[in-house]
Amino acid sequence: MATSSIDLTPLQRADRWRPAELAFWLLPVAGYFVFPDNLVLLTQIAITALFCLSLDLILGYAGIVSLGHAAFFGVGAYTAGLLASHGWGEPISGLGAAAAVCAVLGFITSLLVLRGADLTRLMVTLGVAMMLFELANKLTFLTGGVDGLQGIEMKPLFGSFGFDMYGKTAYWYAMGVLFLLFWAARKLVHSPFGLSIKGIRLNAARMPALGAPINARLAAIYTIGAAYAGVAGALLAQTTQFVALDVLAFNRSAELLLILVLGGSGSLYGAILGTIVFMSAHHVLSDMNPEYWQFWLGAMMLVIVLFARDGVMGGVRAAARRLGLEGGAR
Amino acid sequence: MTVLFDGIASGMLLFLISVGLSVTLGLMNFVNLAHGAFAMVGGYVCVTLLNKAGVPFLLSLPLAALATALVGVVLERTLYRRLYTANHLDQVLFSISLVFMSMSAMQYFFGAQQQPLNLPDFLKGQINLPGLDMGIYRLFLIAVSLVLAYGLQRMVSGTRFGAQLRASVDNPRAARGVGINVERVFTLTFALGSALAGLGGAMGVEMLGLDPGFPVKYIVYFLIVVAVGGSGSIAGSLVASLILGVVDVAGKYYVPQVGSFVIYAVMVVMLVFRPQGLIGRMTAR
Amino acid sequence: MSTTYALQTRNLVRKFGGFVATNDVSLNVEAGARHALIGPNGAGKTTLINLLTGFLAPTSGQVILKGDDVTGLAQHQRVKRGLARTFQINRLFADLTVLESVVLAVNERLGLGARFFRPIGAHQQAVREAAELLETLKLADVAHERTRNLAYGKQRLIEIALALAAKPQVLLLDEPAAGVPTTESRELFASIAALPRDVTILLIEHDMDLVFRFADQISVLVSGALLTQGTPDQIAHDPKVKEVYLGEAVHG
C-alpha cells in the first residue's frame, strides 16, 4: 500500500479534548463555590442546556427542523413525575424510564417526521407536541392538568444523598447527568455515524448515492435526541418536584430554538453557551416588565438571524481565528 | 345543523386569514409563522378605529385591511426580502422574532385583556329557522368571504396580474426572463395576503376574540390549513378551512372533553398520508 | 446470456403525468465497456440515469444489474451491489473538507456508517483508503480545504472521488466535464480513462470529441427512446444520427 503524502493528523486528532474544553468543564465545580445561593438557578441552566443539546443533535447536526421538541421534554417530565408520585422515587431509574419512553415515542414519530418536505416536518412535529399538550391538559386525573403534577417525592440519590431544599444534591445530580450525556454526544458526533448525519444535513440527496440508508440514520438520531430531551424533562421533574403543563407548550419549543440559535447550532457547546447566556440574562432582567423582555428577545433574534447567524459560537470561533488559535471542536 | 353552519362560518374566517399565507408560501416558499400577527394588527386597527375614532364598522373593516397591507409592504421590502433564499429554519426563526415583537408591542399599547367590540345593530341577532339558528354576523362573514374567494380566484385565473403571479410561482427565473417584475409581484401578493389577513383579523374579533396572544393561539390553525390544503392553492385552502372549521366547532360541541386534540391528530394523519396536502402540488424543496 | 452484461434495462418506461420521459428503453451495457449515452437536450438521459440508480422509480420495465433484477431496490441498496453515479451538477458537502467528504463515502462502503463510538480517526483503514483516493485524483494538496472554498474543476473531481469511493463495478457518469474549463476537462477524462477495465462505465456527455475518443460503444437517446446503438465509427456514419443532430442545428 502506497503511503500518502497527506497529513492525516488533523483527522486523527479531531476528537481530542482541547484545553478550552477542559477549562469549560471546570465551571460547574467553580459554580458551586462561587454562587452557593444560586444553585437552583444553575441546576435549571444545566437542565435546559441538556434539553438544548438534544435539539442540537437533531437540528444542528441532522438538520431536522422541529417546532415540537418540547413533546419529549414534557413526556420525560411526566414519566419521571408519575413514577415518583406513585411511589417509585429512585432517581436514576426514573431517568432511565423517561429516556426509554421518549426513545420509543421518538422512534414512532420519526417515522412520521421523515416523510415530506420541511413544512410538513414542521407541522408534524408541531402537531404531535400540541396533541400531547391537549392530552396532558385533559387527562387531569393523571397529570394534574393546569394545576400541574404534584406529590413527587424523591428517594435519596445512590441511597445516601437526599434532595434537600438547598439544592446541593440536585445541583451535582444535574451537572453529572449533563456531563455524562454531553460526553456521549461528543463521542457520537465525532464517530462515523456522526459524520454521516452531518452528510445528511449538508446534502441529503447525495447520501443514498453513497450507499447510506438515510431514513434509518435519521430515525436513529431523532430517537437519541428524543431520549436526551426526555432525560432533561425528567431531571426537571425530579429536582423541582413538580411538573407544570407548560413543559409541553409551544412556547417551550420556540424558546429552545431561539436559545440554540443564540448559542450557535451544530457544535454542542453552542447549545450550552446559548443556555447560559439566555438564562442568565433572563435572571438578571427578571425584574423587567415581561413585555419588554419579550420584545427585546424578539429584536435580538431578528438581529442574530439577519447579521450574526452563527450565534455565540460563531463569535467564539471568529475570535479564536483572530488570535491564531486552532478552530474549535466541530 | 346550527353546528354545521357555525363551523362553516368559522371555516370561512379561517380561509380569509390563511389564504394569504398559502399564497405567499406557495409563491415565495417562505415559512411565515408571523402571519397571525398580521391578522392581529388588522384586529387592533379595526377596534381602535371603531372604539376610539368612532368610525362605522363597515368602514373600519376595509381601513384595517389597508393598514395591514401597508405594514405588510413595509416589512416585505425591508426585512422579508432578505430571507427569500434563506433556509426554512432561518425563516422560522425570523418570523418567530416578529411574532414576539408584535405580541409584546400590542400588549404594551393595548394591555393583555380581550378587546371589546360593539357590532352595529344591523349585524346583531339571528335568523331562526326550524333546526337552524343563523347568526346574522356569521351570515355576513360567510357572504363577504365567498365574494372575496370568488374575486380572488377570478383575479388569479383571469387577470394579467394573476397570470404573472402563477408564472412567478411556477418558475421565477423563467418569469423574470419574459420580463415579469417578480419582485413587484411578490410585494403586491404579500400586500394582498396581509390585507386579507388583516380583514380576517378584524372580522374575527367578534368570533375569536382579540388579545396579544392571538398569533400564537391560532398560528397552528393557519398552518394546518396551508399544510392540508396545499400551499399555493386557493381552492385547497378553502376546502381545508371549511373542513377544519366544521371539525373544530363540531368537536368542541359534541366532545368538549377532547378539545383540540382531534384537530391536531387529524392534521398529523393527513400529512402522513398526503405530505403534499389535499390539493396542492408538492413543492420541489 | 445476460451475465455478460453489467447493466441492462428491459422495456423501461417512465411517465410524468401525460409526458413520456423514458420510452420503452432496452439498453445493454457490456461488462468492462466504455459506453457513452448521447442525444439532444431533453432526450431524457439524466432521467435514464435516475431510473438506473433508483433515484426514480419506473412506470414499468426492469433494471438488471449484473444479472440481478434490482428494479425494486432503493438507491443505497444498489450502491451496495456495486452501482455508483456522479451528478451533473455537483452534490457535495460544502462545509466538510475534501478528506472528510471522501472518508464519509469510504465509511459507507466499509459499512462503518452506523458506528457511533470510536472516532473517525480511529478507523485507520477508511482514512488511509480515502487519502489514497485523493492522491489518485490529484486532490492531495487540497485535502484539508473546505469544499465550498474550492474551484469548480476541483469540486468536480471530488464528485468523482465520492463515486469511486464506493469501489463500484458499474459507474454512471452524468456529464462529468460539465462546467469544467476545457483545459481541466482533459485531466478529468484522463483520470476516468485510467480506471481499471473491470469497472464498467456508462457516460453521458455532450462533448463529441471526448465521446468519440473515449467510448467503445455509443447509444443515442432521442425523445426518451433509444434511436440506435453502435461503435463510434458506426454512429459517426449513421444517417439517422446525423439527422437528429443536424436537424437540431437547423432549428436551434
Quaternary state of the chains: heterotrimer
Q: SSE string of chain A, helix = H, strand = E?
A: HHHHHHHHHHHHHHHH
Radius of gyration of chain A: 20 Å
Helix content of chain C: 25-40%
For the largest sheet of chain C, list the strands in their spatial order.
7-8-9-4-10-11
Mean pLDDT of chain C: 88
Which two protein chains have the largest interface (Cβ within 8 Å of the partner's Cβ), and how many residues from each?
A-B, 44 and 45 residues
Walkthrough of the structure:
The complex is a heterotrimer of chains A (330), B (285) and C (252). Chain A has 330 residues and is mainly alpha-helical. Chain A is built from 16 helices and no strands. With 285 residues, chain B is mostly helical. In chain B, helix 2 packs across helix 9. With 252 residues, chain C is α/β, with parallel strands linked by helices. Chain A binds chain B through residues 59, 65, 67, 112, 115-120, 122-124, 126-128, 130-131, 134-135, 137-138, 250-251, 254, 257-258, 261, 290-295, 297-302, 304-306, 309, and chain B through 25, 31, 79, 82-83, 88-90, 92-94, 96-101, 103-105, 107-108, 216, 220, 223-224, 226-227, 231, 257-261, 264-265, 267-268, 271-272, 275-276, 282-283, 285.
Key traits:
heterotrimer, A: 330 residues, mainly alpha, 16 helices, 70% helix, 0% strand, globular, B: 285 residues, ABC transporter involved in vitamin B12 uptake, BtuC, two-stranded antiparallel sheet, 11 helices, 72% helix
Helices and strands in order, then pairings?
The complex is a heterotrimer of chains A (330), B (285) and C (252).
Chain A: H1 9-12, H2 19-24, H3 27-34, H4 39-61, H5 70-85, H6 91-113, H7 118-138, H8 140-143, H9 168-190, H10 192-202, H11 206-209, H12 214-240, H13 250-263, H14 269-284, H15 290-307, H16 311-322
Helix pairs in contact in A: 4-9, 4-12, 4-13, 4-14, 5-6, 5-7, 5-12, 6-12, 10-12, 13-14, 13-16
Chain B: H1 2-28, H2 35-51, H3 57-78, H4 88-110, E1 126-129, E2 132-135, H5 136-158, H6 160-170, H7 172-177, H8 182-208, H9 214-229, H10 234-254, H11 261-273
Antiparallel strand pairs in B: 1-2
Helix pairs in contact in B: 1-5, 1-8, 1-9, 1-10, 2-3, 2-4, 2-8, 2-9, 3-8, 5-6, 6-8, 9-10
Chain C: E1 5-16, E2 19-25, E3 28-30, E4 34-38, H1 45-53, E5 60-65, E6 68-69, H2 75-80, E7 83-85, H3 98-109, H4 124-136, H5 152-164, E8 170-174, H6 182-193, E9 200-204, H7 208-214, E10 217-222, E11 225-230, H8 232-236, H9 239-251
Parallel strand pairs in C: 4-9, 4-10, 7-8, 8-9
Antiparallel strand pairs in C: 1-2, 1-3, 1-5, 5-6, 10-11
Helix pairs in contact in C: 3-4, 3-5
